[in-house]
Amino acid sequence: MKERQRNFTSNLIDGQKLTLAGWFIPSHFLVSRKAPNLISKRVRIYPKNKMISYQGKLKSDGHFWLIVENEYLNVADYRQKLAGNDLNPIWGTKTPAKNEKQTRNRPIPVIARTGQKYFVAAETLHFRQLPEWTAITKKHKLLYTGHSIVYSRIHTYRGIQYIQTDSGFLPLLNQITGHRFGILTDQRFKPPVLEQSKVPELFKMHGVYCFTKRLVKVYQLPDLNSTIVGRLDRGSIVNYSGKLVDPHRGWLQLMVTGRPYYVPFMTRFPNHENEYGYEITGSKSVTHLVQPWSFTKASHQHLLLNATAAEKKALSRLELKLNQVRTTDSIVVGLINDTHYDARQSSDSQRPLHDLLLMAHFAKTQRFDAVVMNGDLVDGNQILNRTIIDTADAVAALHESHVPTFITQGNHDDNSGFGRYLNGLRNEQVMTEATERKLHDLQWENLLDTENQFYGKYRVPGTDVTLIMLNTFDIRDASSKTYFDRNYHDRPNGIHWTGILQNIRHSRSRITTQQVNWLIKTLNQLAPDEQAIIFTHDSLRSATDRQAVTPFWTYDWFANNQQGDYARAYQTIVAHRQQIIAVMSAHTHVDDWSKQDGINWVTTTSDITNRRKSARLDSQSIGAWDVLVIQPSQRQLFRLRYGWQDRAGRLPNWQYRLFGDGTDTQHHVLAALLNQFKRQPPLTGNGFYYQNQNKQVNQQWRGFRGYFKF
Question: Which Pfam families match (predicted)?
Fold first, then answer.
C-alpha cells in the first residue's frame, strides 16, 4: 500500500536553520543537492525506505530541507507535505506566549509639518491678477515647470481652482476636464483621475524639425478641415513648442507672434508611423525619436482603494508572521522598491499606486518605525509635467503611513531616460534635483542629517539602530547640450559608453567623493553599540575592480558602468562589518542574497508585476514588498514578504539576448532579434573588453531569503 505524505506545520522563515538531529524514511527516492535550492548541483540519490540520519532542518527557496552532512535534501514544498516519515517531526521554533499583540514600547516620533505650503508647477504658468483665466498680469510673469512657490489660499471660479501667492494667482485644477496644472505639497492623498477631454492633449516640449520628404501645409487647428494659413516647402526647418497626436497624424505646434498654429509631421498607421522629416536635438540630427505618446496606452485610471480577497489573505498571513517574530525592542521597517508607477502607460504600471497605499496603511496600523522606498518610484518614461504629477501622487500615497518615510534615488526617478535618451537631448524635459527633492519631501521636513542631498542617515528614536540611505545615481543636472555624433538606435551598454552619457542618470551609476567622505565619517562616528542598515537602489557588491561582471551574482550592466568612489564605499562598509546589519538593494527585479566579506547583501524583487526577472504564470497576481524586523540584541534580521517572492533561477546569455530578462516590456520583432547575431564592425578599447565580458555572462540568482544573522 502506498504511504501517504504527512502534513506538518512550521513557522520557520526562509533561511532560518533549526539545529535538530533525527532520522527520516523517504516514501520515494530523493536527490540531495549541494545548496538548498532546486538549481544547485545534484549530489546523490537516496532510495525509498532507507533510513537517513540528518543533523538539522532548514527552510530555503520556498522548500523544506534536511541537512545531511554537507548536503541538502528536499523533503517538502510550500504545501508542507513530507515525502516520507520524520522520526523527529518538529519543524518550528518556539515562540513565547503573548498576552497581547507585541508592539514597541516607544512612542511614534512626531513628524513636524513644514511651516510653509508649496505649489510645484507641472507646466509653465502665467501669474494672474485675479482668480480668473483671462486676468493675466501685464508683465506676463511666469512660474516655470518644476519650480515651486509658497501659497496661502485656494479659490474656485468657473470650474477652475486657483492658488493665491504673493505674486498673484496660479491655476491648480480644471475641475471639468481633470487637468492638473501642478501639485500641492501639503495635500493629502486623493485617487488620481486621468484627464477627460475631446481635444487632443498637447505635449509641451521644444524642438527643431526639418521637413525633407514633402511640402506640408500649416493649419489654424490640428485638423485637416480647419483653415490653411500657410505652407512649408521641402527642406524647411521649424522650431516647435509642442506635439499633438490624433488617430491618423502627429502634429507640431508652432508659435507665431504669440499665436499657435499646427503642421502635420507624420502619418500614423496601425503598426508604424511615417515621418515627413527628421528631428534636430542638441548637436545631433536623428531620423526618429520615441514620441511622447508612445507610453500612453491606459485610457483611464483604475485604482482599487480597498484590498482584494487575495490581498487581505496575504496581509493576514503577514500580520501573523510579524506578531510571531516581533518583540518589544524590535525595529520594524517597511521596504518597497521598483514600483515604476505610471498613470498612463498601462494597467500594470497603474497598479503599484495601490500597493504603495496598501503598504502605507499596513505600516500605520502596525506602528512601523519607518518606511523606505528603495528607488524607481516612477517609471520615468513620460514628459516632465506627467512625471511631476505621478511622483507627487506616489509620494502622497506613501505618506499615508504617517511614519518617517525615505526615498532613495533610482535610475528611473528623474525621467532622464526619456528626456535625454529616448527623446534626444532635451534638458528642459528632465526633472531637476531640486524639483525631485521638493516632491520627495512632500508634507514633511527632511528627516535625514544632510541637506539638499538624496543620501543621509536617520537614527530610530530610542534605539541603537540607524538607517542609512545612499544615492548611487549621484549625478548633477546637465547644463550642456552637447550630444556625441552616434547612431541614435545604439543602446548604451557598458563602460565604453561612459564618456557619451555623462549627464544621463538613467544610464549609469555613480557615487561622488563627497558622498563617500560623508559615509566614512558617518560609519566612523557610530557608537560602539550602534548598528546600521544601508539602503541603496543599485548594489555596491563587487564594485571593487574592473572585472565587475564576473563575480556579480545577478548580472546587470550598471555594474560595468559604475563610476566615482565605489571601491572606497565598499571597503568602508566591509571595514565596519560588525555594525552593519545588511545592505538592501533593488534594481535587478529579482530576489537575491549573498554573504560576502561578512556583509549581508540583499536584493528585493520589483513590486510592479510585469517586469520581474523570474516570470511565472502567477507572478502577476499580486505585488511584492517587505517588512524588515530588526532584533539588535539577538543580532537577527527577519525579512517578511507580502505577496510574490522569487525562487532561485538562472538565465543563459543566449536566452537573454533573444528574449530579454523580463524586466523590459518591449517586444522586439524577429528581424531585430536575428540582427544581433550578424557580424558587426570591429570594436576597440573598452568596447572590445565589454563585449568579451558580456558573452560570458549567464545570469543566476538565489531567490528569496527571510532570515539573516549579523
Answer: Metallophos
